[in-house]
Automatic annotation (TrEMBL):
It comes from the Bacteria. The chain crosses the membrane at residues 12-32, 44-65. This is PH (Pleckstrin Homology) domain-containing protein. Keywords: Membrane, Transmembrane, Transmembrane helix. The keyword Phosphoprotein does not apply. Residues 61-136 form the Uncharacterized protein YyaB-like PH domain. One of its GO terms (biological process) is bacteriocin immunity. InterPro entries: PH_YyaB-like (IPR009589).
Length: 144
């Protein structure tokens, strides 16, 4: 069986600032009241849990083609879209709502079925589009 082609996620902008900010918050709280945390170190857990989730999403977001499906994972979220059901790809647009396993702007909005959309931001939009068109040449590509 062939290995699936994996596309790394583009990582830029807001997600990096969010991760750094979430790392600084527990450090600042710890520095402000060291004695409280020395007595009860488990008090840092509520501050560290979101950092773990954001780091998991940051380090584990990827897309790949396998069994004629575009698959994605982003931290605890994963899914797949059948390439034959993709009707349109909007390139260079950022989607702020909906299913968005992406870490950057100016990615791909993938429209499939009748009303479903998925926003991804691979390292190379062109490479993903070319590989999807090789499977389903009927996909309409729109550049924004």
């Amino acid at each position: 069986m062939d290995q699936p082609k994996v596309y790394a996620a583009k990582r830029s902008g807001l997600i990096r600032f969010l991760l750094v900010g979430m790392l600084l918050l527990p450090a600042a709280v710890f520095l402000l009241d060291r004695e409280a945390f020395a007595e009860k170190p488990f008090m840092l857990l509520p501050l560290l849990a979101p950092i773990g989730l954001i780091a998991w999403i940051y380090l584990n977001t990827a897309y790949w083609l396998e069994d004629d499906k575009l698959r994605y994972k982003s931290g605890p979220w994963k899914g797949a879209v059948e390439v034959e059901k993709i009707t349109q790809i909007v390139e260079g647009r950022t989607q702020w709502v909906g299913m968005k396993p992406a870490l950057a702007t100016k990615g791909l909005v993938i429209r499939y079925n009748r009303f479903d959309e998925l926003y991804i931001a691979p390292g190379s939009n062109q490479e993903v589009i070319a590989d999807l068109l090789a499977i389903n040449p009927d996909i309409q590509v729109v550049k924004q």
